[in-house]
Specification:
The structure holds two protein chains of two kinds. Chain A is α/β, with parallel strands linked by helices. Chain A contains nine helices and ten strands. In chain A, the strands form two sheets. A six-stranded mixed sheet of chain A has the order 6-7-8-3-9-10, sandwiched between helices. By secondary structure, chain B is mainly α. In chain B, helix 1 runs antiparallel to helix 2, helix 5 packs across helix 6 and helix 6 runs antiparallel to helix 8. The longest helix of chain B has 42 residues. The chains are: A alpha/beta, B mainly alpha. The interface between A and B is medium-sized, with 29 and 21 residues.
């Protein structure tokens, strides 16, 4: 069940009316999402539903054609068709992202991957960054791996490094883009365990996932998307156990009963 | 026909010295400058700015579409007509650098494009600007891809420096020519020059292999 679920916590991130088209294909048709501090929001839905695009709009990797995104205490970034990547860049200072394919830097060791952001971008002391990185690595069970290169690690280990790289930035929001979809089934558990621990610690997260059982366990709110719109949203016990909408029902049923 | 081994041995050091003081520094300086030009041109070609992209495309087209010898002659023998006189060495370095710039630009551009888009994105999400991501993440990875073709460019350049003997630069081949003219042993001296170029290139190739091995340390096998 959910952890520190506080309906009165302030809203950390709010996105209103997000719209995005690739060519003539409209991937997002006015999406609203809000995440409260300490809350875990899970975005679910079939492939092509637009859930990953929503996530990528939240940190400006995708520039929406319309709508706005704002962090608590910061200005709202309003988008239109003339908004550039550079203007969307301000959103990135508050969040960090974990990718489906890890996207570790192959030419850097595990430790170098983790301290790159803190040292090069945030200009923190290298010795401090190294110490913190080693503590974080120990927490995810990779203390011994700090001077290995990514290709020497398994997928599950690489993804845990990816999570540590995000944590090392001390962001106020963690974004997960299908963090276990590229993993061999036996490695999924280790990564989910780490994410669960982070949720329990009170990190604010937005999680795009196909792991419905996991979403039910960690999420405070589940948003089900299909064809660029939010079809249903609410408490995971409702959306995942007793969906009100027919499309949600079909999707959940198919994922829980693949045969 | 007998080989004049004494002449061969006596002229070996002057020719090698011409290589060490002419060919090699000429190649190294021109390569360094040429790579800087190439990187600039590659980035201009990749830029969203149409003017920059067009300028780079035009430059690359002109350099690759005209002979190096003609470029050298334009600079050294042509420019004085408009009042610009450039000495042999600077002329040679300008022509060779511009030439390398044109060829290496396409290599570097392809190498940059070969780095997966996810690497840029990972850089952005840890707060990097485009420039920082390019410098810290993309170029180091592109370098791995670019080293073999750039090594070829460099070895071609080492051999192309022989053309600068025609704009009065004293380098390996010009030394050989001087001794040949004096001794009238043309075949011997030109084969000797060829051998010295060959040895130089062999040594440079081992440097390439070492560099590739070093850059390979993070690549799975």
């Amino acid at each position: 069940m959910s952890h520190t679920n506080s309906p009165h916590a302030p809203v950390l991130l709010r996105a209103n009316g997000l719209q995005k088209s690739f060519g003539t294909h409209q991937v997002l048709k006015s999406i609203d999402v809000a995440v409260r501090k300490g809350e875990v929001l899970a975005l679910i839905g079939p492939s092509g539903s637009g859930k990953t695009t929503v996530l990528r709009c939240l940190n400006g990797l995708e520039v929406p054609d319309g709508g706005s995104v704002s962090f608590e205490g910061g200005p709202a970034v309003a988008f239109d068709s003339a908004t550039t990547q550079k203007q969307a860049q301000v959103l990135r200072t508050r969040s960090a992202m974990v990718f489906q394919n890890y996207n570790l830097f192959p030419h850097k060791t595990v430790l170098e991957n983790i301290i790159e952001g803190p040292v090069q971008v945030q200009k923190r002391k290298k010795s401090e960054a190294i110490e913190e990185a080693k503590e974080l690595l120990a927490r995810v069970g990779l203390a011994e791996k700090h001077d290995q290169y990514p290709h020497q690690l398994s997928g599950g280990q690489q993804q845990r490094v990816g999570i540590v790289r995000a944590l090392a930035l001390k962001p106020s929001l963690l974004l997960f883009d299908e963090p276990t979809s590229a993993l061999d089934p036996e490695l999924v558990g280790d990564v989910l365990k780490v994410i669960k621990e982070l949720a329990d610690e009170g990190w604010t997260m937005v999680l795009v996932t196909h792991e419905l059982a996991f979403a039910r366990e960690v999420a405070d709110e589940v948003v089900f998307m299909d064809q660029g719109v939010v079809v249903e949203r609410g408490h995971p016990e409702v959306v995942l156990r007793d969906p009100q909408n027919e499309r949600t029902r079909q999707f959940v049923h198919r994922l829980l009963n693949p045969f | 026909m007998t080989v004049d081994w004494t002449l061969f041995l006596d002229s070996l050091w002057p020719i090698v010295l011409g290589g060490l003081t002419g060919t090699i520094p000429l190649a190294l300086i021109s390569f360094a400058l040429g790579l800087a030009i190439a990187l600039l041109m590659a980035l201009m070609r990749l830029s969203a700015n149409r003017v920059l992209s067009f300028v780079a495309r035009f430059y690359i087209s002109v350099i690759r579409g005209t002979p190096l010898l003609v470029q050298l002659f334009v600079i050294f023998y042509g420019m004085p007509s408009v009042g610009i006189t450039i000495n042999p060495w600077p002329s040679a370095i300008i022509a060779l650098s511009l030439n390398v710039g044109g060829y290496a630009a396409e290599v570097i551009r392809a190498a940059i494009l070969s780095v997966p888009k996810g690497q840029w994105e990972a850089g952005y999400t840890i707060g990097m600007s485009r420039t920082t991501a390019l410098r810290r993440l993309i170029l180091p990875q592109a370098a791995r891809v670019a080293v073999p073709p750039l090594s070829n460019t460099f070895i071609s350049l080492v051999k192309d420096t022989s053309l600068t003997s025609l704009v009065l630069v004293t380098e390996l081949f010009r030394k050989a020519q001087e001794i040949a003219a004096f001794s009238q042993e043309f075949l011997l001296l030109y084969i000797e020059a060829a051998l010295v170029y060959w040895v130089f290139c062999l040594v440079l190739s081992t440097g390439q292999i070492r560099l590739e091995r070093k850059l390979d340390r993070y690549v799975a096998h």
